[in-house]
Amino acid sequence: MSAPAGRPAPPVPYAVVVPSIGRPSLDRLLETLVAQADGPDSPGPAEVVVADDRRLPRPGTTDPVPDPLDLGDAGRALGARVVRTGGRGPAAARNAGWRSTTAPWVVLLDDDVELPAGWARLLTQDLAAATPRTGGVQGRLHVPLPAHRRPTDWERGTAGLERAAWATADMAYRRAALEQVGGFDERFPRAYREDADLALRVREAGWELVRGTRTTTHPVRPTDDAVSLRVQAGTRDDATFRALHGPGWRERAETGRGRLAWHVATVAAAAVGVGGLVARRPRVAVLGALGWAALTAQFLGRRLAPGPRPGDDVFGPELRRMAWTSAAIPFAAVRHRVAGAVAARRGLEPWPPPLAAVLLDRDGTLVHDVPYNGDPAAVRPLAGAPAVLDDLRARGVRLGVVSNQSGVGRGLLTRAQVDAVNARVEELLGPFDTWQVCPHAPDDACACRKPGPGLVLAAAADLGVEPWRCAVVGDIGADVGAALAAGATPVLVPTPVTRAEEVAAAPCVAPDLAAAVRALDDRLPGASPAHAAGSSPGADAAGASRPGAPAATPDEGRAA
Asked: Strand 398-404 and strand 434-438: pairing?
């Protein structure tokens, strides 16, 4: 609805999503975000979600769980929420973040940027200027570099972000565009190429991407001497990108060309030299060694030429760093590219890939909810559950149960009682491929209790499938939150204990278990008989509704 004549249109609501591994720079970002709300023409975000992507302990280990991420006074002033995603990479963290918001626009920020004064006002103008076909608006990046000397290799690499297309250090996406393409492809596990892949798929879906007027500051963060060697792992993602988008992906994704061909030549020369030594052919060995030395020296020279000069305070450390990494980088780059190409040969399906498993909450989803039930005789399956599960098994879908059982941690049940009830569930409903139970009380700060991702991630690992190939069906917001945090697809089947706000926040709501499975049919193998027969007039093809994007769900402390 347009604004009355003579009145400006109200600002477009937006959410801010920040993936983080807890770097100190996150505090500075949140402080600069708080400082933006200085008037009606520069409103703050409607929602702020920080995706805590620090690693969680592996199932079955006693490693400590990281303390909850403290967002400080700035986070509290923003009303920021935290979604813990378990260390699966920035693509997965951003997906969990944006899927946990409701605003029509999602602004993706890195946790090491700073927002200068006026950023929110210009962002508001950028969003207001977007046409109905604008799927994303990129912010301009500014990387401050030393004024008294030439930049180091790492500083120049960071400054390259100023020229990067569609970098998610500051990128606003329309929610509808993200939903249409399924968000970020979580098969890109590093902060490399995942943003270009998303941009390419959004444009191929018919949306336009534009550059906005706002500018974001991206300081050069401190790092160690081996950073340039570690980033060579990104060549694996180049192989993934090529497998997904074909040989012309660099031009279509607007990415620059790398130095892989030179690295291959360097490694080949070294191989010739080593082969000559092994074969006792001195001339071949010398030629190979000379070729390797010349190519390595050329690479070192290219990296040193634009950098600090003798006499600069950083020249000595930079020379040492460039010397050893220039010798090591070609081998690392070729090794990673070969590994990526071998992995890609197995074939990559378009994102999002088909589902392979359905994980279900126990109480209220499969069987009638009896609080803190330790009596197998009290187990009563919900109507229709056996037929739905048998159909899924016949279609080759793996099945699992993910269940909070805090009665154990509260001292109301023993684990043996829980296991006995679970055995009775299997007697009545058939076998499940994995059972994952959290026995902890809500205050135990465990890694598994829903809405955390631990149970879903453990189930996926036990089944040997990726989390994004799993769906989670449950009856409360904690089930939805666990699915989102783990990268799985959630479906909510409300019961009388389900809160109205949980229903309103869920991305997909179904009236019963059969309808929940029909909602997933497009991504499941085969087709259920009910889905093939069609749905009733007035309902969608799944018999389910999608009231909106989900909000990040706190641990409600329900009976389970």
From this structure: parallel
